[in-house]
Amino acid sequence: MSEQQTPVKVLVVDDQQLMREGISSLLSIQEGIEVIGTAANGQEAIERAMALVPDVILMDVRMPVMNGIAATEQIRQQLPACQVLMLTTFDDEEDIIKALLAGASGYLLKDIPAQNLAHAVQLAHRGIYQLEPSIAGKLVGVLSKQTKPTPAAPAPVAKDAPAHAVAAQFDLTEREMEVLQLIATGATNREIGETLVVSEGTVKNHVSNILSRLGLRDRTQAAIFARENNLL
């Protein structure tokens, strides 16, 4: 870690002591991360977050006293700069949707390797939205049925319109269309970069351009747009 790089301050929240301590230990040896505290339930998470002001919180979903989703909503309201990553064993669709609506910046499963979890923490700190590929696919399937278009959403294109027609309608480049299609599969920026042989920074710029030109809020809406317009 360079002298100029400030470690990402992390709060680990889990009701199981062994899991809580294990995650903390694994993250503590990762470069660029500093675990500044732990909490055993949502209420403790709020209290510790207010006192310690972490950059990122790893939040379990199902806990006694107060669950992680309710805690996430309160923390995001009071500390909007603090990012919350849900880290759980449950991939229930209702939990996923509620967590994201509460303000979580990602939803990960506990079988994630330590190095990947550390990378996810770094990305969350930079404001990059994250979902497990399996969860992303499930979420898109649910939201595509439930989500109603907002006034800012782009008008749908003709059902059988070719990709180049969609690109022309919304002023997207060929490369941006490729990125949009990969977003819809649940691919991360790193995976998109590897597929297209470009840097993560370049991918991030493409994603920003796509969201701006389509008038969308985040990657989830972009994925829904791609699927609704048959771009896969």
Structure overview:
- This protein has helices at 17-28, 42-52, 68-78, 93-101, 114-125, 133-146, 163-169, 174-183, 189-196, 200-214, 219-228; strands spanning 8-13, 33-39, 56-59, 83-88, 106-109, 130-131.
- The protein is elongated and about 55 Å long.
- It has a six-stranded parallel β-sheet, sandwiched between helices.
- The chain contains eleven helices and six strands.
- The longest helix has 15 residues, at 200-214.
- Residues 147-153 have low confidence and may be disordered.
Radius of gyration: 18 Å
Principal-axes shape call? elongated
Q: Pick out the low-confidence regions.
A: 147-153
In spatial order, strands of the major sheet run: 2-1-3-4-5-6
